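=== Structure Prediction Worksheet ===
Name of assembly: unnamed complex
Input type: mixed (protein and possibly other molecules)
Chain count: two
Listed entries:
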Amino acid sequence: MDNHSSNEKPWQAVRTEAVESLLVELGVIDSARVDEIVRHYEEKVGPKGGARVVAKAWTDQEFKKRLLADGLAACAELGLGGPETEKLHVVENTASVHNAVVCTLCSCYPWPILGVPPAWYKSSAYRSRMVREPRKLLTEMGLPLDPSVEIRVWDSVSEIRYLVLPERPEGTESFTEEQLADLVTRDAMIGVAKVTV
Amino acid sequence: MNGIHDMGGLHGFGLVVQEKNEPVFHSHWESRIFCITQVLDTKEIWNLDEHRHEIELMNAADYITAGYYGRWLFAMERLLARKDILRSEEVQRRVDELHGGVSPLSPPDSSSRGWPLRDESKVRWGAWRHEQTVQPRFSVGDSVRVRNIHPEGHTRVTAYARGKVGVVDRVNAEAWVFPDTRAHYRGENTQAVYGVRIAATELWGPQAETNTWVFIDLSEDHLEPV
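=== Predicted Assembly ===
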């Protein structure tokens, strides 16, 4: 598998240090600004943001309507937004339709809503297989789907990003929005898992 | 260009391996490359399409082994060198000095370079031109064929979809920059982007899985009426 820690080469770390130090000396970038963005991705954005969106959509029908009509505007109501997502379509899973997202050309992903994508999303195996054999791949990833369930794979190769709205699991009728958000995983919002209690 | 980056449908890459409790970044240098790139994205040095195309120009074997952030490192170095902002020999000298524990490090050359940018070199970021409007050629429900084209340069039309027929599922009627031309500074050519629904059987023939559809976002110039 590519992009895995076992493939990291020390020379890349040294080259990165060389490029960064020269860019700072030339006045092109400011390292403090880079530090800030690293902290942003390590601490502030991530799947928890998307989980809040999903939980709100499960509990607030009006919000869900707005989310399906204009994903980015609805996410902005929760304070989510930022670079690399100019338009967001939210696709809803039901008992008869299952959605999953991929980018076969690079690894486009809704960073402001879900954070940095996991290594597997960027792997050659996922990018090559998800459009050709999603049923087999989802089964391997722990999500066997009944043949009667229609699979929709979204190859997000333009500047429009996708978020899967998973099905709300049964037995959560009494859950608060916060409790529901705790159940929602990144993988469910990419569409390679279901939300379970 | 028909390159290794266009992976949809390829065989031979094996299983998708999911890491438990994966960290946001696996190492310090990956976090630096990702975030330095985001800072550079705001500096009017390059546009996002030429950044993607630079990655596509990697040697295929390197593309596979470098990993996601290794590709970004490659694109950063090459674009900065192309624009004469940071020369490859300067980077190499600094790498050698860092490896050798040399101190103090040699400063960058004092000769003139492409930084600070001259006004005419400044590049506009973003993919959606809010100040423009476009008149979409296709509507929801229209049958369309993905054009069978094989340009040598950058394109966002995936190889596996070329020549295939689908149905317009969604019209994104905003003025989207056409990546295929912007990557090469041949104009922004803003146009609608369509979500096109294509049956798996159309894409993969007898090997298609049942009850499966692929939705691909394609620029108007990548589609023709059926």
